[in-house]
Amino acid sequence: MYQITCPHCGPRAQTEFTYERTTDSIVDPAAEPQTAMQALYTRANPMGLDDEIWRHTYGCRAWMVLTRHRVTHEIHAVKAIGPEALP
Amino acid sequence: MSGPTRTPSGEETVPFTFDGTTYHARPGDTLAAALLANGVGLVGRSFKYHRPRGIMTAGIEEPNALVTVGKGGRAEPNTRATDLFVYPGMVAMSQNRWPSLSFDVASIFGLAAPALGAGFYYKTFFGPAKHWMRYEGFIRRAAGLGNAPTEPDPDNFSQRAGFCDVLVVGSGPAGLKAALEAAEAGKRVMLVEQDSAPGGSLLRDPDPAIDPAAMVDRIRALGGEVLLRTTASGYWDHNFLTLTQRLAEPGEVPPHGFAQRLWHLRAGRVILATGLIERPVPFANNDHPGVMLSQAVRSYLRRWGVLPGKRVVIATNNDDAYLTAQALVEAGADVVALLDARASGPAAPAGVTVYHDARPSSVTGRKHALRKVTAVIGGSEQSFDVDLIAVSGGFVPVSHLHMQAGGKLNWSEEAQAFVPGETPQACETIGAALAPPPAPAVAPAGKAKKSFVDFQNDVSLADIDLAWQEGYRSVEHLKRYTTLGMATDQGKTSNMVALSRLAEKQGVSVPQAGLTTFRPPFTPVTMGLLAGAGARNAGAHVRRIPLHALHEAHDPIWQPLGYWFRPRAYPVDGETLAEASLREARTVRTVAGLSDVSTLGKFEVSGPDAAALLELVCATTVGKLAVGRGRYTFMLREDGMVQDDGTVWRLAEDRYLLTSSTGGADRMAHFISYVRNSLRPDLKCSVVNVQEHYAGIALAGPKARGILAALIGAEPPRHMGYAPGVLAGVPVHVLAASYSGERAFEIHVEATHADKVWQAIEAATRAEGGAPYGLEAMELLRIEKGHVVVGGEVDGRSTPHDLGLGGMLNKVGGFIGAAGLTRPALSGPNRNNLVGLVSLDGPIPEGGMLIQRAGQSPQGHVTAAARRILEGVPIALALLQGGHRRHGEELIVTSPTRGEKARVRVTAPHFYDPAGERYRD
After folding, report:
1. Which of A56, B559, B619, B675 has the most CB atoms within 10 Å of its CB?
2. What mean pLDDT is predicted for residues B73-79?
3. What's the pLDDT band for B2 if we cut at 50, 70, 90?
């Protein structure tokens, strides 16, 4: 079970979080159908670092992007997203 | 063996029974030690061949001496006698024998042996099915270990979360030293030991310079935690480990409430001081009682004062077994021969004859011990009359946790063993596991057929050879074909012996042959421990709807729904569920009824961009709603399938209320939050989940408008209208929405004031001849009206078009799922479409398949079956291939599982008031 450092709550157990998707599979609602389906059904799935969207669902409910190594499961960075995180 | 092999000590003894006979143990004895002390060498029968088995080891790796311990629901099968500490009154039974341990029919007639070689069950699959049925019965009777108890487990299991800076696994010399050093450096330390005493190898080979008990006291005095009888059973990501702590011995009535505790532990650093497991030696009949690992012999001698044999042969390929010779000589045993497979070795104790280039080839035995050992010495054979052979085939580092942590292994040619290497986690291995003693490869000397490798699953060298001959080359295939390493010991003593045989067959080195993956748990974990308090539902949270107590007073039939319970029906005068729900539905159709809809998902969306967000989430238009108006809506997944439906209301200029289904409420909350935070964080709006803030009461029926008008003192809004109001002195939202098909309202009220509002509506409704109705009546009403339900018709595979909702899609697009809907397959002619079915004869079976004639593949299925509420004709909703253009067709609904059938006519899914005239006042 991972230990994820929530940008708001600090280090917490993975069971408090839910995984959403990789950032490369975000479907832009404004995208053309072809592009949208490409995003929905294909993943880069790198053997290395990948960016994933997670939510601290059973904690503060905030959203974040984890940069996670897909082989070692090491989490290199956590970045808050959402309206509050906008510049 | 004959008679006791332990000198009486005058110590207090612990009585226990084994197969009904009472014996006495000393405090601190394992069952294995106590049985050996009482001259019992035959402990069980093997898995497939019912061969007599004894005690081979002195630890958790024991493959042979498995017993069932405890009584009734507390009985624990397949418990290792070597990992079970005797307590007063312990009841242990041997396994897999009939009629008795010493007289086993299957063994005496050799019934099992010819049929059950490697891959026997795979081979039976190739034959006709009826043969398999016969084999299966035979195999089930012949093969097996202990039986699981049929009664519920009376024990309670505890779970606890833990944190530490340093976790040390294993309390041998290296583990004790590391734990003490860390504690002295001010770290928060946990030291876990699976045994009942600290010391590890020191319990077998004491070192006057190390006092385990004193070191444990010191660690504890420094604030460290030392847990005995605790196994680090799983090593997961980010230094998360599961520990299983025994608070009572298997089968024992727990003295302190809990039988075991499961720790969820997060450790800063993990130090694995897990030591070595000795490797057995393959030779014919090497599974007989009286064949014991060399270090185990030392453990019984020195830790428990038990002499496992009086005349002993030792067989080894390493120096360690010479210590066993020494210990045996000191204890007064006669070491008849020391067979060393190597050309030279260290000095042997005085009086012990060492034979070099010597390997055991077979043994013969008596009931509880050996009779004779035959060895190949140089080129010739020689036999020895003995009752015990102590064997050592080298050592295997315990690298299970290291591998679970993602660690790599390095091959040591000198020790013929895999040694822990690098790991990606904050984890290191120390001590003996890093430095197994040199032990060269030795070719087995005995007949392969009876030279056992995996004792617990009865896999011999011949089985490995057969698998090889039949083409199973990879170690993974070998494992599955022979079941090697798949028993409860997970191959702790067998893996390396088997691997070297496979490597030899392939003509490659052992690391080239490969190694199967070690997975948690390290030793078996009882299911109750994983369930913890959840086994008695203590961990499940129950949410109560605000009106729960009011409903309870009516003594309804409850139905679990999401996290809640909702009334399914309110029977009166001994009505059945069917009678009550039909009466309630008729009341709604003819008078009025009220129902609790508090669990509906509810979201308040406000701000200047509220409509923009809702037009992403909802597949219908939203922005065009006037203030005080609402509409039916549905939400799609990105692939175009309907995921939920509900209603959306414009409460004020920049404030909306969105409702969704009960079961999908959490999913919708997550989905809306994703859209808002991840896709459109730029929108100026806020989303508040008000699901439990408001209680909801539906009031439906021809008299609903009149009842509500009197209660709020105003004309209620027209269909799909919204108005705030005051009811029984409480502010309410009145939404004129109908699920039943009647003129109806949802009254939403702050949960804390819901009682008063319900009571007022109920009194007024009853005064008009109405009544409360439950979920079952609601189901009858909505089926007749043809409204879809999430989880029924909305099954994750239906598009809006499939459900007849295509016309309501937002023509402008821009909603989530719009792109997915453009996929060509979603507009194909043979998709499953929502239709109605009217029976031409009897009731329509729920879940039944739709066919044109018998023997045909199904063309659809019934999603919900009911009857016309007033007329009684059986009707149903169904998803049917190309259903939209098949209205009028006659079909058969068949449910082979229920043995029911009905002839039906396909219709539009709206049976009741299709034009919606009853909504109008």
Report:
1. B619
2. 94
3. very low
Q: pLDDT tens, B128-160?
A: 667 766 666 666 666 667 888 999 999 999 999
* Partner residue opposite B679 with nearest CB, options A18, A29, A57: A29
Angle at the Cα of B558 from the Cα atoms of B553 and B561, rounded to 5 degrees:
130
Count CB pairs under 8 A between chains A and B: 83
- Contact list, B816 vs chain A (CB under 8 Å): 27, 29
**B431 shares its domain with B371:** no
Q: Are residues B200 and B261 in the same domain?
A: yes
Q: Which residues of B touch A13 (CB under 8 A)?
A: 240, 264, 266
pLDDT digits (tens, 9 = 90+) for B6-35: 877 777 899 999 999 999 999 999 999 999
Q: Write down the ipTM of this complex.
A: 0.98
How is chain A split into domains, by residue range?
3-85
Domain edge (last residue) among B463, B493, B516: B516
| Cβ–Cβ below 8 Å for B236 and A40 | no
**Interchain contact, B638 vs A57, CB within 8 Å:** no
Q: Is residue B719 part of a domain?
A: no
**pLDDT per residue over B809-826, tens digit each?**
999 999 999 999 999 999
pLDDT tens readout for residues B637-690: 999 999 999 999 999 999 999 999 998 999 999 999 999 999 999 999 999 999
Asked if A30 reaches chain B (Cβ–Cβ under 8 Å), the answer is: yes
d(C-alpha B748, C-alpha B733), whole Å: 5
Task: Look at A29 and B818 and tell me if their CB atoms are within 8 Å.
Answer: yes
Using an 8 Å CB-CB cutoff, list residues of chain B that contact chain A. 236-240, 264, 266, 406, 424, 616, 638-639, 670, 673-674, 676-679, 681-683, 814-816, 818-820, 822-823
CATH label of the domain that carries residue B37: 3.10.20.440
Distance in angstroms (rounded) separating the CA atoms of residues A16 and B293: 47
Measured between CB atoms, does A60 come within 8 Å of chain B?
no
d(CA B139, CA B155) in angstroms, rounded, equals 32
Looking at the structure, tell me whether residues B493 and B554 fall in a common domain: no
Whether residue B403 lies inside any domain: the answer is yes
Kindly report the three-state secondary structure assignment for every residue of B862-873: EEEEEECCCCCC
A63 touches chain B (CB under 8 A): yes
Distance CA B240, CA B246 (A): 20
Residues B912 and B787 in one domain: yes
> B424–A72: do the CB atoms touch at under 8 Å?
yes
Identify whether residues B802 and B901 lie together within a single domain: yes
Identify the CATH class of A3-85.
alpha beta
- Under a CB-based contact definition with an 8 Å cutoff, are residues B837 and B875 in contact? yes
Residue B425 lies in a domain: yes
Per-residue buried b or exposed e for B337-364, using 16+ beta carbons within 10 Å of the residue's own CB: bbbbbbeebeebbeebebbeebbbbbbe
Flag if A83 and B677 touch (Cβ within 8 Å).
Answer: yes
Q: pLDDT (tens digit, 9 = 90+) per residue, B244-275?
A: 999 999 999 999 899 999 999 999 999 999 99
For residue B218, the enclosing domain spans 159-276+396-437
Tell if the CB–CB gap between A2 and B639 is shorter than 8 Å.
Answer: no
Closest Cα partner for B155 from B66, B234, B70? Answer: B70
